[in-house]
Amino acid sequence: MRRTNRLASLATLILAGAAAPLHATLLTIAQPGAAYTSSTNLLPVTAAELANVSSVTDGIFTATFSELLQVATVPDNWFSWGSPPAVENATPRVLISPGTTSTLLTITFSQPVTLFGLEAMPDGFGPEPMTENFYNGANNIGSIQLTPDGSAGALLFAASSTIPITSIDITTTANPLENGTDFAVAELRYALVAPEPNTWIALAAGLGIIGWSRRRKLG
After folding, report:
1. Are the C-beta atoms of residues 210 and 11 closer than 8 Å to each other?
2. What's the structural domain count of the chain?
């Protein structure tokens, strides 16, 4: 039953992005609904509060950071985050970038993935443009550009790809009315294996998942 539900959720997630051009490399995911969360694995943040970490792992997959990130919990050491459905949880554990040497954070993966996502928001109390770039080796295979708000306005930066993703980076542009360029990320999620969209459509049709998922409301 758990296996069937997982297949149904991922099939529904991919079908939800079918409105995008068929030649597109990335299918962006706007909100962390049930299809997204049930089809991905969450990387836990288990280090002590205010510790500096160079990576996070679930024992199978590791995401390594280009700079040490500081662990914090909302609202104890990071003021606010956001509210569902825009984000998974209003009080997540977050990872804070230094914001002193660079506006760029690179996250490198221990093995390729076909889907990766995280939530992000700037430190400043106001909207700031942020960009997440997806890479296969040195090749940029697409990007997501959003403007989260530091006043409880975190947003999801997530996409599935028909080309394996080996790393991502995040850049931010500081609001001129705010000091610093630091930001926080949370709820890092990945999927190691996802067949091509046409394969999922055929599989879903064969299993009767398409009709079943239409009857079931997914967030």
Report:
1. yes
2. 1
The pLDDT tens digits of the residues spanning 180-208 come to 568 999 999 999 965 555 544 444 454 44
Which structural domain range is residue 126 located in? 2-215
pLDDT in tens, 76-132: 999 899 999 999 999 999 999 986 555 689 999 999 999 999 999 998 888 999 999
Per the CB < 8 A criterion, the answer to whether 144 and 55 are in contact is no
More reliable by pLDDT, 18 or 130: 130
Determine how many CB atoms are found less than 10 A away from the CB of residue 199. 12
CATH code of the domain covering residue 130: 2.60.120
